[in-house]
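Hi R.,

Here's the chain you asked about this morning:
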Amino acid sequence: MNMYDIILKKREGGKLSKEEIEYFITEYTDGDIPDYQASALLMAIVLKGLSEEEIFDLTKAMKKSGDTIDLSAIDGIKVDKHSTGGVGDSTTMIVVPLAGACGVKVAKMSGRGLGFTGGTVDKLESIPGFHTAMQPKAFFKQVNEVGISVISQTAHVAPADKKLYALRDVTATVESLGLISSSIMSKKLASGSDAILLDVKCGSGALMKTREDARLLAETMCKIGASDGKKTVAALTDMSQPLGLAVGNSCEVIEAIETLKGRGPKDLEELAIHLAGIMIYIGGKAKDENEGMAMAKAALEDGSGLEMFRKLVKAQGGNPDITENYKLLPQPWYILEIKADRDGYISRIDAMGIGLASQHAGAGRAKKEDSIDLSAGIVLAKKVGDKVQKGDIMARVFGNTASKVDTAKELAEESFSISAEKCEPPKLIKEIIGL
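And here is the predicted structure, written out as tokens:
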């Protein structure tokens, strides 16, 4: 077996065998296949596609390329959550405490961000003292005692995916259903939870721009999960405009806390309650999705979700006083306002444009090794469908570097459109797959 024959077979539209896929993943992970041959195969896959069976085999081969986490030391059904990424997506910091407050065990490993803003790990690390690196024994102990934990991904989970993702990023081979689904699910399956909730975004600020592509990705990932014995559910959600109002790191922590206090943006609260409700159901704590949502809403209204967030912060070395004193979080030096230039209604807030603007402000990374400004970001004052008058503030852009904030403001301004006629905001939750 050799790479030349495997590349040629896929280039000609052939179906790769399980053995050929395992050979590629094993040898490439071990450094015995050069990047130029791996790149050639990736491009052939992008052009010719992968069958469902090939996707399953690729996912399982990447899962087996490193450690698989055994969560059997944690009592009960363990539920994981994953978002395919977006702009202003702070849901993990709300959903996990709500589900945990209702008795669901959540042992979550999250990544750092690359692009618009930081990942969940970066956002949580804007909390003074919060640590996301944890040994397995301490991780299991916390989930058993507190109910939830969110830590950084170990380098030994699906190392094949890490190598391939870095290569795809520089060889224009990211946009492939088979490669995207196997990348996400190899890490989820290796992380050891019993059930998985996927938040699959669609729109300008998402990897999948159309509902049809997002549905196909969601259906494929649900099938992969089922093939590995995991209950897997996917929610298709809108990302044509930013979710909520805050886009950044510490500002998203604040927004998550405000939402847990019942004072957050209504779209973010709606999505968080729905996702938490599904987690409560697939975690065996509710008889169906609707009961799960009712339980999640009750946990938000009675404050138990907020209390669970405080327990999470304290257990991982952070200062829980941040829930009452936001000045303990990183603060920006510079704040600029974006104002409406005429009367009308907000007809568009391009999620991609706002995301890129927040990155330029310092909230995101262009390369994995880049540092980020945890104080930087954008907070919207208006959403699609809102009425504005000339001079009204539509958003605030902030950070610690004046030139970056200036550039970010210019980019963010271009993301707003105002029309004379009122338009309806896009539907947030488009459909649920796998329930």
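One quick note: Residues 79-325 form a domain with the Pyrimidine Nucleoside Phosphorylase; Chain A, domain 2 fold (CATH 3.40.1030.10).

Cheers,
M.
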